[in-house]
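Late entry, written up from scratch paper. The run itself happened at the end of the previous shift, but nothing got recorded in the book at the time, so transcribing now.
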Amino acid sequence: MTVISSAGNQALNTLVTTTKSLTAVSSAASQQQASTAQSAAVIIGQTDTTSPVYTITKPVLVWERSSSDLMSSKLASNFSNAGNASRFAGLGAALLERFTTDGSSYSQSVIKQTSASQATAAANVAAQSQLHTKADNQISLSIKTASGARVDITLGSGDDGLGVQVNVSKGTLSDADRKALAGLAEGFQKAIDGLTAQPPKLDLSGLTKFDSSVLSSVDLHATLGTTHTQTLDFHADANTRSVKSTGIAGTVDISVDMSKRALLGTENQQKQALNSYLKQINSAGNRGNADDSLMTMFKEAFTALNSNYGDTATTYKSRGSEPVYFSLTKTDKNMMTGLADFTASVTQTPVSSTNPMRPDETDTFSYQVSQASTITGTSTQDRNITQKQQSHLVASYHESLTPGLKLNLTSDRNSQNYLYYQIDDTAESTTSVQYHKGALVSASVDQSATNSTHIQKYVKGALESDITTPEIMSKTTDLLGKLQSAWENNAPRMLFRDYLDHQTLPDLSGMVLMESDPAVLKNH
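Output as recorded:
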């Protein structure tokens, strides 16, 4: 343990606790001052506890280890600032960049002591441990290498302390491991900067860009704040990605299954599908009057987890005691979204205080969207592919009768002039593809969209109208028929199977994308 006085440090103010009067300075007090000189705590007073005294204590910085390295300098600089954004600025990147020159463990912390009662070795060790394990603001990154080694990085911050720790266990790091770890520096820091921003952001894309042949998994956990706590749990490996974040605004929960890589499409195909989903997420947020910052976090996380998939595949191994290997073609992928399967939801914290006269009228927002694919059959020659996309929006909110006028509902009936919306929308798109004896025998997509809008109008507290407006649309598209038409127009002298295998096919992936607006689906 190293103790460095904070005298002269403008960021730390001298703490003076004054009791009634100062009488005398005893020799015992002088000896006490000398014995505590190492911690630079100054205590002046009498040994006679019955006499009122002055107690003067200068705050000091207590370091866990020698503070002469660059990381300690960064900690000292950040510690003089307030707020998580400034405290954690650059620390995550610096800890990972350290692996370019050093593959060992590391631990450092700085604690501000403001009273002599804190100046004991046991108290310092306890405070240091708290910073590394259960700080008020804690961010941890755990990485497993393909060779079996594990790296745990923690950043902790409290009112009177800031600490970082790197723990390398279960093996040593190779040059390739260290290079891959350092390569995550920018992504880790962007994730930290996003989490500590106001409002928070979920910038996680940099943590999905790693070589799974070198690093087998990446996990990020965060707990920030004690009053309105923001939490994050993120995981990524070769087969799964997930994120769950909860805060004052609500909860974002997304999981991506990347095990069916044979269904992943081209980069353009994936971009088209991602943009389509983001458009519908925007539409759901607008229609349900969702919190903008919460929806931004949801879109950020959804984009991050559905980007940078890496290599695709053409063969899929089914699950079971006797797995079947299916080979998928460009024709199959051409009729899919191109994205990995996923489940995603965003739920806003309900508000029941908007209308004190009718507390049962709660402001809510909940949106779920998913994609699930199955590949079944006895062989590649006889295979069936099904891909189902679904979404569900449930929301309720209050709105002023006068556009642009801020709603202020009270117990006074004269204020009770408003509209109360209740939204319930569902959408679905199911693509089915069938092969028999190696020939494509059927391919189609069934799509539907149902919107329900329930509006209650109140004037001076009295219900003036109560209207529910449903909109329903469904359609079926024959994908096989479209392929056959293109074949007849472009290469009628070829066998249909040869055309599918060797010619450029019309892009059908846009036709299978789910559409949640009945009016748009009708004209699609």
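Confidence is low (pLDDT under 50) at residues 4-54.
(Scratch paper discarded after transcription.)
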